[in-house]
Amino acid sequence: MDFFEVIRTQRAMRRLTDEPVSDDEVWKLLDAAIRAPSGGNRQPWNFLVVRDGAAKKKIGEWYLDAWEKMYGPARDAGGGGNPAFARTLRSADHLARHIGEAPVLILATIRRDMPTTASPTLGASIYPAVQNLMLAARAMGLGTTLTTLHKLHEREVKDLLGIPAEFETMALIPVGRPKGKFGEAERLPAEKVTYWDRWGERRSR
After folding, report:
1. What is the separation of C-alpha 132 from the centre of its chain, rounded to a whole number of angstroms?
2. Looking at the predicted structure, is the pLDDT value of residue 118 above 60?
3. pTM (two decimals)
């Protein structure tokens, strides 16, 4: 696929089939992830691939609990009368109820005890790798979405999977064959969110 087509058509895919994802495919995603830049090229990341059914089920239970606490009221209110937000909530609600059934869950983690990963810039050395992984998935026809709700149960997730204390989980990425279709998601034009040389000064193409 053309690189810019990959970018244009990559979107959150929250409805996944149970069709298997091979280890070779997962390795391709991870090989793409580790090509990302990081502060001082320290590469402070580790990735944890979760295939075990019991572990995925437990993570799914914690994720659903976090979802209900954080977004249940908005969902029950129908998205506050905003049809687009209501559609997103329905999609996210489906994910919350089925994330434990995804063929693969990938946790992106980062060491907290390295100088270049100190808060508040912790994500600068991991989220580029996560985006690489997700773009590679799009190019391969695999669906992903970046989630963080599991962090409400960070301690339990780390205990379950044996993640050392000095590592923090920064993203939980379900991977699978999408039930929906890739396509361009609605986005504000670059002209509306970009200023040139001074805040508030716009330029047309």
Report:
1. 11
2. no
3. 0.93
